[in-house]
Amino acid sequence: MGSPGFQCRRAEPFLSLSCENLDSVLGSNSRLPDRVENVNERNRNAKPVPVVDPVAAAYANEFNEMVEGLPAFRPTIGCIVPAYNEADSIGGVLDSLLAQTRLPDVIHVVVNNTTDDTVKIASEYAGPHEVVTDGVMQFTEVFVHDIGVNPDKKVGALNYGYSLIEGCDFLLGVDGDTTASANAVEQLEAEIASDTRIGGISAIYSIDDTVIDGLMPQFLIAGQRAQFAAFNMQNMLRGRNMAVLGGQFSIFSMKALREVMIDSHQATPWVKDSEVEDSLLSLQIKSAGYLTKISAQARANVGGMTTLRGLDAQQVKWNFGAIELMWPGQRGDTKGQPFHPNLRLRWIENFSMVINVLTRVMFFILLFASLSINAFVFSPIWLIPPFIAIFLNLRTALSMKTRTWKDIIFAVGFLPAELYMWVRIGHFVRAWTKFASNKQVDNWAEQAKAERGSGNAYLVPLLVALAAAAAMVFVWLQLPVVVQSTILWIGWPILGVTTVIQTLTMFVTLTKRHRGYRV
């Protein structure tokens, strides 16, 4: 690896030197060969053939070898791995980083608030590492830092790591449960170094489902894989503009981070005020005039949630943080930025979830109400939306580079995807309810508690739905038949129009070209 501060253009090799230029190369005292005169009359006006002096040729070769031996410029990459209770995965993460075709120049594992053997396992990798890739020797060094109790949690670990690599050109952020393909760092570096306008690039995220056992974990992982795939494809089709540079495996320009700190009057790149530190930093990078992109090739597998409790806590935290960024005004110390370009996709997602809630809830209410008074008449036209949804889910599954038979079954089975949508609706409703309550909640702590198997908040949407259904059934049965008929007469057309709009939207999405992208 060459010195990062030196860059040199490679000299063009000397092929020959004319006699007229040899004096300037060898000095005026050098012996020059005599010109050979051609006595042939036909060639008297031809240009003389230069004769290369052996001394000059040797000098040229020596100079070329010296230039080729000069160190080439290579930007430096500092890697930060914030880790909290990652004993089960930290070894795999470090193995993945040390197996990269382009090693980070330094790797800092920053362990915080841990209660397991994360430090012990990570320490086995501490020290210098030399790796030979395609005949080229690469060097990196792993440092493990146990910063103990850290009230700022992941944000505090990231900022601590940033202070250790301030002299690097790029920062690679890797979560303590994320592994990447062998050439991911090389691909991210090539992409971000190719355009100075890019402030950060995120890898294409998915979840490895080959090590998941159990019906419920497999169902939840299949849903998360489909969710990641749809989100990744949306961003790719938007010019590869990434709304959120997920901290799982992303590379950042240190220059962009420094400008964010200046523009936002921050002492560190990440701030603790937001529930979604990566989303806020992505907005700030965009506001500083840089691009936030998703990679076209680099891939990484993140840690998925295998329990309803854990998935609920994670998704509620993400949704709640996104709402804080979207909503106008001030909520804590996070400034609402409703019209920020990086939040357009967030608004679309939330509006789409509102439509999903509305159509599904109305359908079940109207179906029950119609059956209760023998007024339901089946029409095959109602089968169109589910079939469009199946085709859309199947196309998403087929766009996955690492798809398995589980992804296909999840898509074409309809019921698994529909059940997972109801799970997501519960997260969506819980997040907005939390936000509307204006109650300060540490969602990081809630997620940590859920991952330990504590808490039953994930059951709240189900219990509320059952209570609301019971109340509506009671009220419905008390209404006169005329009122019931009037409600059905108004309700079904409203649901029909909403469903038509939703189906047309799905159909347009289904017909969009993927331009060869794989997620």
Automatic annotation (TrEMBL):
Signal peptide: none
Family the entry assigns: Belongs to the glycosyltransferase 2 family.
Transmembrane segments: 375-394, 457-477, 489-510
Keywords: Glycosyltransferase, Membrane, Transferase, Transmembrane, Transmembrane helix
Source superkingdom: Bacteria
Molecular function terms, GO-annotated: glycosyltransferase activity
Occurrences of domain Glycosyltransferase 2-like (ranges): 80-260
Designated name of the protein: Glycosyltransferase family 2 protein
